[in-house]
Specification:
The structure holds two protein chains of two kinds. By secondary structure, chain A is mainly α. Chain A contains 15 helices and no strands. The chains are: A mainly alpha, B alpha+beta. The interface between A and B is small, with 9 and 12 residues.
């Protein structure tokens, strides 16, 4: 393996990603500042969408790595290494989360994005957050101090476990010590529980608590399904690029793509199952405390269909039905351009899913005395793109930086031969 | 003896068996098969077999199940005996979805099972190859390639010679 030439190539990509990332982040932060000055939550949502998208990929890869360890999966060993490289993004994502935390801690109106953080924020038709019985009941959990602690706990779990898994795997490259694999396996058995709790907590804190009135026990699992789909689609794109660039040339086999494709199909169904179940239970129970969340995503106050109805339909047909039908076909899972196309499609709709979950979460300046409210409509702001590209640039920079530290594949892993010779 | 069903040849080990299959494929035979007591990885490709048709049966079963599930709910709750349950509409794609979904899965599974039987020509209690004592050893350790007489390229002398050339041993004709 000509590691010298590939490393220098990798550093160029990393440098470009860093520059693009910084430019994107500067633009997104400019929007962030505008949002703070004008008391507008939308640019802060752009930032949250950007973080949510990239962290979902990293979380999904972290879960996949641990699941593969726990099941002692032999075939994905060469893919696992790529996940380990991407997981280097977690510490950077924590740093990138800090602007949101700074608003919460130091801004005059901490409730600019998460409305429950400011007791004087108005609710449509019934006073303020501070007077709200539901908020008072949830206050022991939903308060700024505990929220801040949770952010560090959530990221702490991800950073610690991904860091240890990376260390065990990279050490095996040098020493060939099989104990590393055993340690990683034990850690994964525990880590899956910790990561499940951390991920659920993150989903509840960052996305669900935008509308703290609402409750859904499916929400954590929804985010898990979304993370897995995002990670699997990213793995396809990443490994295909790495194979084309030479890192995995002749190593990534059709069988690997086929199996990842099968998992993409499985998690497409799983995502639909979870998303539909959440809707189904709320629809059947028909309790106003829960149905309002879906009402906002369908109708304006006056009952007219709003833009979110179209987005909802887009999610049903674009995020479920189209990938589902395409992935049923064998060729979609093995023909390279088709796998990349369907992966890109899934990632695009994953972003739309995040929009759908985040953007209607805060009404446009509700009037506490009037009965009406104004739903924040679907829109793609330039700051969304800046945040997605910027945060992505930093994540890719982190990955490229990690790639210089270890071999492209875990050459001394006990299962490497099985993975290299894997056939369908 | 009656009419010839085909010619069988045995092979000493898996690699020679595998490569012999590739040669039979490349020689252009169509009505032939390989027999071993264990699966040989890559054998379908070595035999030049197209992908299985079973997924088509699964898909058709699924579509049928989804349609039947939808119609059942519509017929029962909205047409034959309109029934208000929980203030919901008589028919909607939302509340009966579990039924549509379960029937999709059930009939996909039936489609898969039926498709497997149909494409494998099962149930089949008798095959003329059972007339050969040597062939019966396939369930033990014998690896056999059988070329059938109904193949267009089949010729009693030339096919026997061909099987010898590709390394077959214990070659014998099997009658119907």
């Amino acid at each position: 393996m000509s590691s010298d030439t590939s490393n220098s190539k990798g550093s160029n990509v990393g440098l470009i990603a860093l520059v693009v990332g910084i430019v994107g982040i500067v633009i997104a932060l400019f929007g962030f500042k505008q949002g703070l000055d004008n008391n507008d939550a939308r640019p802060l949502m752009s930032w949250l969408i950007g973080i949510g998208f990239w962290i979902s990929i990293a979380i999904g890869m972290l879960f996949l790595t641990q699941i593969w360890y726990v099941f002692h999966a032999r075939w994905p060993v060469i893919i696992r290494r790529q996940c380990e490289h991407f997981m280097a993004a977690f510490p950077y994502l924590l740093v990138l989360f800090l602007p949101l935390l700074a608003v919460v801690l130091f801004h005059d109106n901490p409730g600019i994005l998460w409305k429950w953080m400011n007791g004087t924020n108005a609710l449509p038709g019934h006073g303020t957050v501070g007077e709200d019985a539901i908020y008072q009941w949830k206050q022991p959990f939903l308060n700024i101090e505990f929220f801040t602690i949770r952010v560090f706990m959530i990221f702490g779990v991800f950073i610690l476990i991904s860091g240890l898994l990376r260390k065990f795997s990279f050490d095996t490259d040098k020493t060939g010590d099989i104990k590393n694999t055993h340690k990683a396996r034990v850690l994964s058995s525990l880590g899956l529980f910790l990561c499940a709790v951390a991920m659920t907590m993150g989903a509840i804190d960052w996305f669900k608590s935008l509308e703290y009135h609402w409750f859904s026990t499916m929400y954590g699992v929804w985010f898990f399904a979304a993370c897995m789909r995002a990670a699997l689609a990213s793995i396809i794109i990443l490994t295909v690029i790495l194979a084309a660039k030479g890192y995995l040339k002749g190593i990534l086999k059709q069988a690997h793509r086929y199996d990842i494709g099968c998992m993409m199909l499985a998690f497409t169904v799983f995502w639909a199952y979870i998303s539909f179940s959440q809707y189904f239970l709320i629809y059947n129970a028909n309790i106003p405390e829960e149905t309002f969340w879906y009402n906002l995503r369908e109708q304006n106050f006056d009952g007219t269909t709003n833009s979110w109805w179209w987005v909802s339909m887009g999610l049903i047909f674009g995020h479920f039905l189209t990938p589902f039908l395409c992935l049923l076909w064998y060729k979609t899972k093995v023909v390279i351009w088709r796998t990349v196309a369907i992966s890109t499609w899934i990632l695009a709709f994953h972003i739309l899913d995040l929009y759908w979950n985040i953007v209607p979460g805060k009404l446009v300046n509700p009037d506490p005395h009037a009965a009406g409210y104004l739903v924040r409509q679907f829109s793609i702001s330039p700051y969304d793109i800046a945040a997605l590209v910027g945060i992505g640039g930093i994540c890719i920079f982190a990955m490229c930086r990690s790639m210089k530290k270890a071999e492209p594949i875990p050459i001394r892993d006990p299962n490497i031969l099985t993975s290299l010779n894997y056939t369908e | 003896m009656s009419e010839t069903y085909g010619i069988i040849a045995s092979f000493p080990d898996t690699p020679s068996f595998f490569h012999a299959a590739e040669k039979v494929r490349d020689a252009g035979y169509k009505k032939w098969d390989t027999y071993s007591s264990f699966p040989v990885h890559g054998m379908p490709a070595a035999q030049g077999q197209p992908r299985s048709k079973v997924p088509v049966f699964t898909f058709c079963g699924g579509i049928l199940g989804f349609t039947v599930g939808t119609l059942i709910v519509w017929f029962m709750n909205a047409y034959n005996y309109p029934l208000i349950v929980g203030g919901k509409p008589f028919f909607s794609p939302v509340f009966p979805f579990p039924i549509m979904y379960e029937l999709t899965i059930l009939l996909s599974a039936f489609g898969t099972l039926g498709g497997m039987f149909i494409t494998n020509l099962l149930p089949q209690h008798y095959n003329p190859l059972f007339n050969s004592e040597k062939f019966l050893e396939v369930s033990g350790d014998r690896l056999v390639i059988a070329i059938e007489a109904r193949d267009g390229k089949f010729d009693p002398v030339a096919t026997r010679q061909f099987l010898e050339e590709i390394g077959g041993t214990d070659i014998e004709e099997v009658s119907k």
